[in-house]
Amino acid sequence: MAEPVITSPHAESKRPFLTEQRRSRITAYTFISPFFILFSIFGLYPIFFTFYLSFFKWDALNPMKFVGFKNYDLVTSDPTFWISFTNTLIMGLMGTVPQVMLALLLAVLLHSGMTKFKKTFRILYFMPNITSIVAVTLVFSTLFGNNGMINWMLNGLGLDSVAFNSGWWGVKIAISTMVMWRWTGYNAILFLSGLQSIPMDLYEAARIDGANRRQQLFSITLPLLKPFIIFVSLQSTIGALQLFTEPYVFLGQAGTGSTRQEGITMVTYLYSEAFRNGFFGTAAATAVMLFLVTILFSILNMLISRGAGGDTGGKKA
Amino acid sequence: MSTLRIFRKKPDDIGFFGKLGYYLLLIFGALISVFPFYWMFVVGTNDKGAVFHVPPLLTVGDQFFHNFKRVLEKADFFQALGNSLFVSSMVTLSVVFFCTLAGYAFAKYEFPFKNGLFVFVIATLIVPQQLGVLPTYVIMAKLHWIDSYKALIVPAMVNAFGIFWMRQYISTAVPTELIEAGRIDGGGHFRIFWNIAVPVITPAMATLGILNFMTVWNDFFWPLVVLKNKEHYTIQLALQQLFTTRDGLDYGMIMSATFTATLPLLIVFLLFSRWVIAGLTSGAIKS
Predict the structure, then answer these.
(1) Which of A42, A62, B50, B273 pairs as cysteine with B155 (C-beta 3.0–4.6 A)?
(2) Which residues contact B187 (CB under 8 A, 6 or more apart)?
(3) Within 13 Å, how many C-alpha atoms sit on residue B71's CB side?
(4) Which among A28, A36, A253 is the nearest to B243, CB-wise?
């Protein structure tokens, strides 16, 4: 686009329109170029390079050595990788499914015509999302301590203490709780904005037809909310697969870092492969597999939410 | 309230106890949302043993400054706070500027491949950040940007969400006639953008700015990867650093630090919460 720019549109009397059009095109491309330049360097190129890198043995210092699919073999034969994989899935399910359902319930409650202080509630429910994950994790690690408040409450209810900072399930419950605490209100507000976009006269009409609240919920609210349900569960799924900070900080206090088996996730595995052990090749292979898993779960998620929303009527998925 | 009248007549009126339960449920949820903030403050203002007090201590103490003094011994707390402030502000200014420019171009200009390019921008939102993290690290090493703020600022200077969001806002808020009128009067493209469009869309720019500021401020993964020297740590790394101290965990100290680090963000949020929530919800409509 090195067209000589004519400064005044009146200078060339024959085709002034074209000049004007060109000028605005150049302007538009200039305005959008920062994104494309930066994304090419720090987004697109690294993505392709990751795929390329996953076929090489490399410690980020010495020359790269082509090894074919060996990195994938190495990763998939490492038991720690599979632990990180199952951990990610378990914590993903535990943190996401109840979270989305709770958020939906909260949004319906908040939307219901009789809620006073709706704005105050929205602010209070959104507050967890603004704190840093590091701070959240630190606070929850006191609540989930061996003699912490949660165990104190469990004991009060006549239950045994749970080893939230070292047990196989304990750690997963603690981490999922942190994720839920942070995101439920956020998602509820997304759902709430979806609910507010549903026209009220649909409900009026349904009421005249004698539909009760449950029928209204299943044949108006949920079907019309479907795009939001898909969006929220997709976002939560992708977020859950990338879980890193919570396990890293929560399990890091003993100095053993984030690789403790009860809470290691795929991203913590990737992180320690690359930045602790210096195996960039296997880390790249892990990144590629994480990407494939993300795509797989996104598709699965779309299929499930499409089916579950239903078209009309109170049919169950 | 017309809705109330309708409910009263209907057989599915939930009644007084229904309403009571309903509000109790909402209040219970709100308490759970807020409690960790309060608990942070309680532990931060009490002495060392407060976390393990049985039954749990729930009252605010007077040890805050005493605890915070130990934070200053262990970490360069204010330095880290300043680093975070610097990085977050630079990124936010840049994101708001470049995303507004790009959003404006996508909303108000016609040019070849416009739709294709816009779809591409949206598509980049799906790609997980971790996929490119290793080569990005290598690029940073080649540029000698490891352990510098450039590594945090430059890649984050513009983002797809911001472009998407500014485009949505600009296409409805800025009348095309106004821009055309400006062109006929002989105004330059950037001048029109700056003098006509920007004043109309400042609320949207502010929302984007706040949301972006919070995201950068709270980021942990990337700073952990590229920052090496303690002097350069952002506040998140400094907080985590306090937690890894081996000689017994001093929760009073840790919580006085997390509380102090959370407070500025909390105040900003409470001041601008209306904008933040509005921004968040309009961003969601993309689905």
Answers:
(1) A42
(2) B195, B196
(3) 28
(4) A253
Distance CA A44, CA A36 (A): 9
Segment holding A57, helix H or strand E: strand A56-57
- φ and ψ at A57, to 5 degrees? -95, 125
Residue carrying the six token digits 């989930």: A144
CA distance A130 to B11: 42
- What is the Cα–Cα distance from B222 to B245, expressed in whole angstroms? 22
Other CB atoms within a 10 A radius of the CB of residue B26 amount to 21
Q: How far is the C-alpha of B69 from the C-alpha of B287, rounded, in Å?
A: 48
Q: How many whole angstroms separate alpha carbon B275 and alpha carbon B269? A: 9
Residue of B9, B146, B240 to mutate, interface with A, max A Cβ within 10 Å:
B240
Cα distance between residue B225 and residue A81, in whole Å: 20
Answer for the pair B169, B282: CB distance below 8 angstroms, yes or no. yes
**Interface mutation vs chain A, best among B131, B239, B269, B274, most A CBs within 10 Å:** B131
Helix (H) or strand (E) holding B174: none
Q: How many helices (H) and strands (E) does chain A have?
A: 14, 2
Q: How far apart are CA A3 and CA A19, in angstroms?
A: 10
Chain A: closest CA distance from residue B196 (Å): 16
Distance between CA B44 and CA B46 in Å, rounded? 6
B217 contacts in A (CB within 8 Å)?
132
R_g over Cα of chain B:
24
Please identify which residue in the block is written with the tokens 């608990």: B39
Render each residue's pLDDT in chain A as its tens digit; 317 residues: 444 444 554 544 555 555 778 888 999 999 999 999 999 999 999 999 999 999 999 988 889 999 999 999 999 999 999 999 999 999 999 999 999 999 999 998 888 766 778 888 989 999 999 889 999 999 998 899 888 889 999 999 999 989 998 889 999 999 999 999 999 999 999 899 888 888 888 888 888 888 888 888 888 888 888 888 888 888 898 899 999 999 999 987 655 556 678 889 999 999 999 988 899 999 999 999 999 999 999 898 888 877 765 444 333 33
Q: Distances in Å between the alpha carbon of A237 and those of A81, A100, A182, A300?
A: 20, 10, 15, 10
Nearest to A35 among B130, B158, B218 (CB): B158
**In sequence order, which residues have a C-beta less than 8 Å from that of residue A153 and are 6 or more positions away?**
none
The answer to whether A297 and A239 are in contact (CB under 8 A) is no
The 10 Å Cβ neighbour count of residue A6 is 14
The shortest C-alpha distance from B41 to chain A (Å) reads 10
* C-alpha–C-alpha distance, residues B254 and A136, integer Å: 12
Contact yes or no for B19 and A114 at CB 8 A: yes
Quote the Cα angle for A315-B4-B7, to 5°: 40
Q: Which residues on B lie below 8 Å from A50 (Cβ)?
A: 131-132, 134-135
Inter-chain residue contact A242 with B104, CB threshold 8 Å? no
What pTM does this model have? 0.86
